[in-house]
Amino acid sequence: MAGSSSRNEGLHGCFLYALQAAQRSGARSPRKGRNLILLGKSGRGKTHLAVDIVYRSIQNSFMAFFGTAATLIDEFSVGTTCGKLPEALAVYLQPHVLVVDTVGYMSYGPDAANLFFHLVNERYLRRKPVIFTTNRSPLTAWGEVLHDHDLAEILVDRELEKVRLIVLDGSSYRTRYLELDGGKGIRQSTAIISGIHSKPA
């Protein structure tokens, strides 16, 4: 049980550390247009962090919206087909803080990159932040995910101009009670945050 306790404490400490960095980037300064990308495998707490940012943003009197990438792209695709893309975009352009959850978890249509670009570019021009959670690196894999490497590169370029990238590693929170690694305990560096090199206490 000692190994399990050590793992849980390490996960908890790194999660809190990542949460504090995420809040500094998102919930407390949405008018600065600072974007945030939460990158990691399934079960690492990305969505949990994003939901907390939405909650804290609302507490600070900012409008916030949470949606999945698949839902967003589907709505934009329908809007394009019906000639109502501006109306579909408006829903996602109004909030001060927008969370786009689970980029890369599902396959998207061939127009995904174009539709995604409309959103990111319009919010970029309005200096409104976008918070992405993803299991695929935006630097190397989003071109494949969105079926257009060139447009994905432009999209990511706009995101990375003002961004904090948080890489959540280590064991899955969903299986943290299982001794899947032989009880050796959690790796000490389970949160990697761009611009911050110290380890959590």
Molecular structure report:
The protein contains 7 helices and 6 strands; from the N terminus they run H-E-H-E-H-H-E-H-E-H-H-E-E. The protein has a 6-stranded mixed β-sheet. With 201 residues, the chain is an alpha/beta fold. Helix 5 links the parallel strand 3 and strand 4. The N terminus and C terminus are likely disordered.
Properties at a glance:
globular, disordered C terminus, Rossmann fold, disordered N terminus, alpha/beta, single chain, 201 residues, 7 helices, 6-stranded mixed sheet
State the CATH topology: Rossmann fold
What share of residues are in beta strands? 15-25%
**Oligomeric grouping of the chains:** single chain
Helix percent reads 40-55%
- Decide which structural class fits the backbone: alpha/beta
**Total strands:** 6
* Largest sheet features: 6 strands, mixed
Q: Which stretches are low in confidence, meaning pLDDT under 50 for 5 or more residues running? A: 1-15, 181-189, 196-201
Please state the overall shape, judged from the principal axes of the Cα atoms: globular
Sketch the topology as an H/E string, one letter per element: HEHEHHEHEHHEE
Q: Give the overall average pLDDT.
A: 76
- What is the terminal separation in angstroms? 22 Å
Q: So what's the CATH class?
A: Alpha Beta
The CATH architecture classification is 3-Layer(aba) Sandwich
Radius of gyration: 18 Å
Q: Going across the major beta sheet, what is the strand order?
A: 2-3-4-1-5-6
